[in-house]
Design goal:
By secondary structure, the protein is an all-alpha fold. The chain is built from 7 helices and 2 strands. The two termini are 21 Å apart.
């Protein structure tokens, strides 16, 4: 059964309580992973911009997104420093790697799939950051995660808007359903841990 997000996105499966329990049990590790995810998201946006310099709207959007994600990285690094937690080295993200395997070859198919995969990832991030914000007792931290969830909400919609400017709506809707179903299988297959994915 698809999970309808408050702002309209639909995921094929909701995050389970075991994930939230894992995050709450080791919040420092979650913060370390969150910092890494924000840095990688900035790099992904720059990679998209470099791959499609001939598409001005996408180029502008990805340049702005890269700056915003880097700002989030700076903010999470600030949280780590305040709490005396050392940033951790990047680790392999089995979730993102598995999702990237569904991206098809061919210039137009590749573009559509990358945009939809990015949108699904951001939609999952919006769900999970909102879950975290809902259980944090430290109000400034809860407010921070509500703001991050709102950003992820804008981001998944941005990727879909970019897809709609480049591809037929029917193709986008079909690929969203297919990729969201794959994403749900990936989520269910992974052991919950104190990390975003």
């Amino acid at each position: 059964m698809p999970v309808q997000m408050e702002s309209g996105g639909r995921l094929a499966a909701a995050t389970g309580n075991r994930w939230l329990t894992a995050v709450r049990a080791d919040f420092p590790s979650f913060l370390q992973d969150h910092a890494s995810c924000e840095r990688k998201a900035s790099g992904m946006a720059l990679s998209m911009a470099a791959h499609y310099p001939d598409r001005p709207e996408l180029l502008k959007a990805m340049a702005s997104l890269a700056v915003e994600e880097l700002g989030h990285y700076r903010d999470v690094i600030g949280l780590l420093v305040e709490r005396g937690i050392r940033p951790a080295p990047d680790t392999r993200d089995a979730y993102v790697n598995a999702l990237n395997k569904v991206v098809r070859k061919g210039r137009d198919q590749y573009l559509l799939d990358r945009l939809v995969v990015a949108s699904v990832i951001e939609c999952r991030g919006q769900e999970r950051f909102a879950l975290i914000a809902g259980v944090l007792t430290e109000e400034p931290l809860a407010r921070f995660y509500r703001r991050i969830a709102a950003s992820e909400d804008r981001h998944w919609q941005l990727f879909i808007e970019l897809a709609r400017s480049e591809c037929p709506d029917a193709d986008i809707d079909r690929r969203w359903d297919e990729i969201a179903a794959c994403e749900a299988d990936i989520i269910r297959s992974l052991t919950p841990r104190a990390a975003l994915h």
